[in-house]
Amino acid sequence: MERIYVDHAATSPTHPLVIEKMIPYMNQAFGNPSSIHHFGRETRRVVDEARSYIAKSINAHPHDITFTSGGTEGDNLAIIGAAKSNSHKGKHIVTTEIEHHAVLNSCKHLESLGFSVTYLPVDETGRVSVTDLEHALTDETILVSIMYANNEVGTVQPIKEIGQLLKEHDILFHTDAVQAYGMIAIDVEDLQVDLLSISGHKINGPKGIGFLYSRPRVSFTPHFFGGEQERKRRAGTEDVPAIAGLKEAVKLISENKEEKVRTYKQYRDMMIAIFDREEIEYHINGHQEYSLPNIINVSFPGTTAESLLMNFDLAGIAASSGSACTAGALKPSHVLTAMYGENDERVMAAIRFSFGLGNTEKQIATVATKVAQIVKRITAV
């Protein structure tokens, strides 16, 4: 039985070319980038070149890039670090109810330290209102954190409009762009964001690496204390193989991006067409216009996500019910709850399918057909 992976929003397979780029820095050029001898200078060059290349991908300066262990650390460092460093200006933060838990739990931690946090609601498409945000701002607001695109339903937020609003108020703006990076062109100057988090394993790079963009005007308190790596923002010897791999992954996502987007949209349309042909009942969650092309979140009335996922796995289909950080908990999705309310049937019957490297048109047709068959079997009971 062929096993088909349609859970790329949880993690993506490491591209073979990325692996190829990483290997030499494990067994040949293994020096510490902080060492002044040849071995250290060799790896320092790799780190510096990667930083410059990655910075260009978002129209930033190399000095604005801090390598992290991934999106979670980037979110934590941006939110907690910036809040602590700027607490003399105020102690109010604004975010949304549908953020990744790396953001939500960072905000909860800050609440325990005396900060106040406003959690903005979203509409039924998962989109936040810029007007609601403006009304939530106070003289004490120092930071706003709103994700670029949601990891569960794929809804894209009005980041540029938010950036323009916050610039007028001189409030720091952080966006978790983990799902958006690679799918949407990002220009930090155009968006007017001050802090932006990225994770390597969502773009066919290695796990355990990511980066945080921070505008020069931003000051934040570091989480790690030790050496002076990463301009004293993040102590610890740099993971050179992972950084080399991340650079290659960033290079690869820029190639044929438009073609990939078109392909994923075709996969999405094909899946919907097969559901219609099979005459099953379903509901698509998320915004139909402002949405990532590679994520489709679908609720199947008369089923539960738990029963569906068990049957999918037996049929060789790897999908999920939402964020990989919480899916194992079998709790209602906080994203869908924010969109529909906790008692709506769509919340407990939702499945996320996400496309990526290795998927083919034939695979997606197979997935959609098997899903329809399983839904029919479950709802017939």
TrEMBL record:
The keyword Protease does not apply. Keywords: Iron, Iron-sulfur, Metal-binding, Pyridoxal phosphate, Transferase. GO terms for molecular function: cysteine desulfurase activity; iron-sulfur cluster binding; metal ion binding. It is an enzyme of class 2 (transferase). Its cofactor is pyridoxal 5'-phosphate. It holds the Pfam family Aminotran_5. It catalyses: (sulfur carrier)-H + L-cysteine = (sulfur carrier)-SH + L-alanine. SUPFAM superfamilies: PLP-dependent transferases (SSF53383). Its EC number is 2.8.1.7. PROSITE patterns: AA_TRANSFER_CLASS_5. It comes from the Bacteria. Residues 4-365 form the Aminotransferase class V domain. NCBIfam families: PRK02948.1. Belongs to the class-V pyridoxal-phosphate-dependent aminotransferase family. NifS/IscS subfamily. This is cysteine desulfurase. It comes from Lottiidibacillus patelloidae.
